[in-house]
Specification:
two-stranded antiparallel sheet, 15 helices, alpha+beta, about 300 residues
Length: about 300
């Protein structure tokens, strides 16, 4: 599928067609799992969030139409006037829900796979929900290092409410993720006051400085068009290890072979799906993953969904 062109949009709406196997309810359920999420709200099966385009915040509402397309409405007089800006919003939504991906091959292999068949049967139609913005993806990966998911969401909310921008609409405050230029100007003590560790504060500021100075960008990483080169570029960054790099490669850069092989949640999910007495070793996981070649990211995401 290709994003719609300007002539296919309505004055205050954009209609986005969906792949046949896209299940809106399952994707909405995934987005609803964390009550402490601070970048979007879900009410009456509608998603509201800010999308940043060219440093301008646009508040949108996404809902599902029975004819199998998404309706995206601009709220609070934030409708972009330029065609290029509207197309970037469409592309953001395509990227967020991974709508370009043809999952036929993945479903074919997963339905025959002893590890994946349970999750695919339960969540058929779920997309690997992404984080299209590189700084947000890296920051979320850093925040989540070595802490439980609940506390990670708390720290993310504190960071966003301290340094993000907001739009008020119908009595609700909607937040955008802090811009790297602002985080780049902070001292580590500004972030430790939010209960981020000294090291994580240093990591975040360092990454923000690289992005603000344009030494690091999503465009440059994608231009490499090479998984190994992109992974090495990320792991060479201060504070970015293999797990965080593969998380970003999976959810932002969209490499299907991205694979955080030592992820605790992944190990627990495999243990659960296979009724193992103990979590599997890395070697065992890699042996299972031979059947998932070039679909490791989707296999990981579906297995995570068994637990989260």
């Amino acid at each position: 599928m290709k994003p719609l062109n300007y002539s296919e949009t309505i004055e205050q709406q954009i209609h986005i067609p969906l792949p046949p196997d896209f299940n809106y309810e399952l994707n909405l359920d995934y987005l609803s799992r964390e009550k402490n999420e601070s970048l979007y709200t879900i009410h009456e099966k509608k998603i509201r969030r800010i999308i940043q385009v060219e440093h301008v915040d646009t508040l949108i509402e996404i809902s599902y139409h029975p004819d199998h397309f998404l309706i995206c409405i601009f709220l609070q007089n934030t409708r972009p006037t330029q065609l290029e800006e509207r197309l970037k919003i469409i592309n953001y939504i395509y990227d967020w829900f991974d709508l370009h991906r043809d999952l036929t091959q993945f479903y074919s292999l997963a339905q025959k796979d002893s590890v994946l068949k349970q999750s695919v049967s339960k969540f058929y139609g779920l997309r690997l929900i992404g984080i299209p913005d590189l700084f947000e993806a890296l920051a979320w990966g850093i925040i989540g290092q070595l802490i439980n998911l609940s506390f990670a969401y708390t720290l993310k909310r504190r960071l966003i409410e301290a340094y993000g921008e907001s739009i008020d609409y119908e009595g609700v405050k909607y937040w955008s993720f802090p811009k790297p230029d602002l985080i780049a100007s902070l001292a580590a003590s500004d972030l430790t006051s939010l209960q981020l560790s000294q090291k994580k504060g240093d990591y975040l500021i360092g990454i923000a400085q690289l992005i603000a100075s344009k030494k690091l960008s999503k465009e440059k990483l994608l231009a490499m068009d090479n998984f190994a080169a992109s992974e090495k570029t990320l792991t060479d960054l201060y504070g970015i290890g293999p797990w965080t790099a593969n998380y970003v490669l999976m959810r932002c850069l969209r490499y299907p072979e991205a694979f955080p092989v030592t992820d605790v949640g992944l190990l627990r999910a495999i243990q659960f799906s296979q009724s193992l007495e103990q979590k599997p070793t890395k070697e065992v996981v890699l042996n299972y993953a031979k059947a998932w070649k070039n679909w490791e990211s989707y296999a990981t995401f579906y297995l995570w969904r068994l637990l989260y």
